[in-house]
Amino acid sequence: MNATEMLNEAFRKAGREYGYESVAAGFSEFREFKIKWRRSCGWAEFEVSDYLKDAPQNVMDGLAETIFSKLSRQTRKDYPKDMMEWVTSDRFVKKKQPVYLTRSRSLTGTGKGEHLDLRESYDRLVDMGLTERDNELVITWTKQPSTKRVGHCSVLMKVIIISSVLDTPEIPAFVSDYVLYHELLHMKKGFDPFGQHHGVDFHALERLYPMRDEAEEWMKRLRLFF
Fold first, then answer.
1. Cβ 36 vs Cβ 47: under 8 Å
2. Are 93 and 158 in contact (CB under 8 A)?
3. Among 10, 41, 95, 141, which is least packed by CB within 10 angstroms?
4. CB neighbours (10 Å) of residue 67?
5. Which pLDDT belongs to residue 107?
6. Structure letter (DSSP) for residue 78
7. Could you report the per-residue pLDDT of 179-190, keeping only the tens digit for each?
8. Structure confidence at residue 192 (pLDDT)
9. What is the pTM (predicted TM-score) of this model?
10. Cβ-proximal residues to 68 (8 Å cutoff; 6+ apart), any chain
11. Alpha carbon distance 149, 164 (integer Å)
12. What pLDDT is attached to residue 76?
C-alpha cells in the first residue's frame, strides 16, 4: 500500500468504530501540522498534513482513532505514545523543518534584523539561565510587521517566529527578549495539541523573566499581542 492508501485504511477503520459508513482521507501541503475535516450524518472527509506522509501504519492508526474520538465528543483520547514519539523525534525535525521553512514565505529565515539580532536575545536568555541552548532551533523575524501576533512558534518544527514590528530602536531590546522567552516556554512545554497553552504554570514561568512587568507595559502601550 502507498501512503494515501494507508491513510485511508486508518481513517476508514476508525470511522467504522464510531458509526461512519463513508470515510475518505488524503494528504494536503499545509504549512502547519494540522488536520481539516468535513462531516455529516454517516460520512466524513479528512485533509491530513503531508508531514505524516512517511509515517508508519501504527502512527496513522493512532491519529485516526484520536480524531474520531474527538469528533464523537463522548470520550476524547490522547494521541498514543508511538505517534507522539514519532512526531517529536529528532528525525522528524531534521526532515520536516526545512519543508516548513520553505512553506513559510512570510519569514526572513534569519534572526538578524535591521536593528536587533534575535540570536543575541537568545544568548542573553541562556546566560540568565532562563532556557537551555538547542542547536536545532530556528529563530526568525517576519518579513512584515504585525501587532496582532508578535510571537509564534511551531513546537514540532522547532521554529520560533518574532514579528519585525519589534525590530526597531524605539522599542527596548528587553521587550523582544521577553517575547522570545514566552515562545521558548512553549517549546519547553512540548507538543500538547489538546492542552492549555497559557495556564497557571505557564504564567508562573513567565514571571521568572526579570523585566516581565516592564515588557508587558510596553506591549500594552503599543497594543502588541501574543
1. yes
2. yes
3. 41
4. 23
5. 97
6. P
7. 999 999 999 999
8. 81
9. 0.93
10. 11, 14, 15, 17, 18, 20
11. 11
12. 64
* pLDDT tens string 74-93: 666 788 999 999 999 999 99
186-212 per-residue burial string, b: 16 or more CB within 10 A, e: under 16: bbebeeeeeeeeeeeebeeebeebeeb
DSSP-derived pairing of the beta strands 138-141 and 35-40: unpaired
Distance CA(121)–CA(211), nearest Å, equals 14
Cα–Cα distance measured from residue 117 to residue 141, given in angstroms and rounded to the nearest whole number: 9
Cα–Cα distance measured from residue 90 to residue 181, given in angstroms and rounded to the nearest whole number: 22
Q: Where are the alpha helices (DSSP H) in the chain?
A: 3-17, 57-72, 81-87, 90-103, 118-127, 173-189, 200-206, 212-222
Query: Stretch 153-161: mean pLDDT, rounded?
Result: 97
**Reported confidence tier of residue 196, pLDDT bands at 50, 70, 90:** low
- Which residues, at least 6 apart from 178, have a Cβ–Cβ distance to it below 8 Å? 209, 211, 212, 215, 216
**Cα–Cα distance for residue pair 147/216, rounded to 1 Å:** 14
Q: What is the pLDDT of residue 75?
A: 67
